Amino acid sequence: MTSTITESTVFVMATKTFINNKEWVCQYVPCYIESQTAENVSIKPFNKTGIFVVSLLEFNALFVYLERDSLYVYVDSYPSGRILISEFQVKKISLNKLIKHFSDNSVFVSLIKKVEQDSYGGKGSQKCVNMLEYNAYITSTNSTSFKLERIGDPIFNRTARHTVPILDTFSREEFEASPSFPAPIGIRNADFALPTEQNELLLELLTQLFNCVGSPVCPPIIASELGLIITTETHMCKWCCEKISLANLDQTYCSKIHSINLCHCDPEVGTKKGNVYWGHCSCNREQGGYSEEERINQLIKLVKSNPLYIEHVLLELLT
Ligand SMILES: [Zn+2]
């Protein structure tokens, strides 16, 4: 059980990633001090659900104090340099009741789980060092062989979306110069979202599912508990402007023409509220890795260089 944050709660952050109780404690993630004894400090990192007990010696060597006021904790590693303290106490929305209710409908359950997975988890990097490799590296007297293998990656393999966002411009050289190296230090910038935004995204994508043609009915009590406002048979794929149907859906991941997937209006922006929606896999493939805006600009050029189409396009737009 974690304690409540009060006006006098103290915030700190680690200056390098380290391992505690078989888990990574990530650098530059704000943590609040839950309790303290003569030997130990118990901290609750923003991106973790549990409490970590750090010896006073380790705490003094690794942690620095963060400024705070009644609303925010100030931390340069996060967008806008601060985080609302209330975000520390935002809990994940549980979809267990929903999953249990639809347990006989495996395809629909797989869609609910996809919503949960993408709302709360980043894509991660499989190149991220594991704890065994990390310990071997830091205890090795000769790290040259590790360097040749390009050990590690700044991005965690699996972690919460409110871990420190790492900009795409962050270089390998900067990573190797980091005191945490070769331990991971954050999450892809496109995967970053604060807990409130993750919950909003989860509810938005869930609402879209229930708004599809042929969707099973959400029990009113669960809809009301989650705060879902369902308007059946209204959800459309943004690419082809057709309503999405869950009837005869074969959800063997985009292998069939009628499959659906989470599509991004702008892939660079990532899984953010308003930028992601349930669309057709085939439409997603057509869009490719481009944003909608890029595709529209390409079409404008194509139409301009083919005068026969201009009149046709204008007519289409006016009707
Ligand atoms: Zn479509």
Describe the structure.
- There is one protein chain.
- With 319 residues, this protein is an alpha+beta fold.
- The chain folds into three domains: 79 residues, no CATH class; 124 residues, no CATH class; 61 residues, no CATH class.
- The protein has eleven helices and 13 strands.
- The strands form five sheets. A five-stranded antiparallel beta sheet has the order 6-5-4-1-7. The chain has a two-stranded antiparallel ribbon with strand order 2-3.
- Helix 6 links the parallel strand 10 and strand 11.
- Helix 3 runs antiparallel to helix 7.
- The radius of gyration is 23 Å and the shape is globular.
- The structure holds zinc ion.
- The site of zinc ion has 7 residues, from strand 13.
Number of helices: 11
State the total count of DSSP E strands. Answer: 13
Uncertain segments: none
Bound molecules: zinc ion
Distance between the termini: 60 Å
* Largest sheet descriptor: 5 strands, antiparallel
Helical residue percent?
25-40%
Gyration radius, in Å:
23 Å
Which shape, going by the Cα principal axes?
Answer: globular
Question: What structural class do you assign from the helix and strand content?
Answer: alpha+beta
Portion of residues in beta strands equals 15-25%
- What is the strand arrangement across the widest sheet? 6-5-4-1-7
| Mean pLDDT rating | 91
Order of secondary-structure elements: EEEEEEHEEEHHHHEHEHHEEHHH
Indicate how many domains the architecture comprises: 3
